[in-house]
Each structure stands twice: as C-alpha cells, then as structure tokens.
Amino acid sequence: MSAPPPDASLCPLCGRSNQCAILAGVDPLNCWCMDTPVAPDALARIPEPLRNKACLCPACALGTDRPLSLIHISEPTRLLSI
User: 13, 63 in Cβ contact below 8 A?
Assistant: First the structure.
C-alpha cells in the first residue's frame, strides 16, 4: 500500500495550514507569499518527496516559528507553486 499524497493545504515542514490563496479559491496575486521573503534554508529543509507538492506556511517560509503577525515583512518573493 502506498502512502497518501501530501495535503497541499499543509506546510511540508511544520504541518500547519500554509494559507495558500490558490487552494482557498482566491486570486493568487493576493496570496501572502507574493510579499514575503522565503529563507533559502527553509526551502532546503523540505524533504525531497514533499518538494513542489505544497507551499510553506508564512512562519516556515521566513525561517521562524514566530507567528507571522510578529514578523516584519519587507521583500517580495515567490514560494513553491503547487
């Protein structure tokens, strides 16, 4: 029996909601990931089988476990596409 596919709505690093606009049916240009820098080490920590399967959550994208509301966001970048 093979494992079920990963849930595209969950962050592949922490398992929390990744708050993906595409999955929510919202215009992708309004997604938080369009305005949030993604830490290169966060992308590197995604296990190979989960890469390009789901987006990171805001906290993991920034390389922190702090809630996004406590993080200053200043540089735009894109996350993984689903």
Answer: no
Provide the token pair at 12.
């592949």
Contact between residue 71 and residue 64 where contact means Cβ atoms under 8 Å apart? yes
pTM over 0.85: no
pLDDT (tens place) for every residue of the chain, 82 residues total: 677 788 999 999 999 999 999 999 999 999 999 988 899 999 999 999 889 999 999 999 998 765 444 444 443 444 444 4
Which of 61, 57, 60 shows the shortest CA–CA distance to 75?
61
User: CA 7 to CA 1: how far, in whole Å?
Assistant: 18
What are residue 80's phi and psi, to 5 degrees? -65, 150
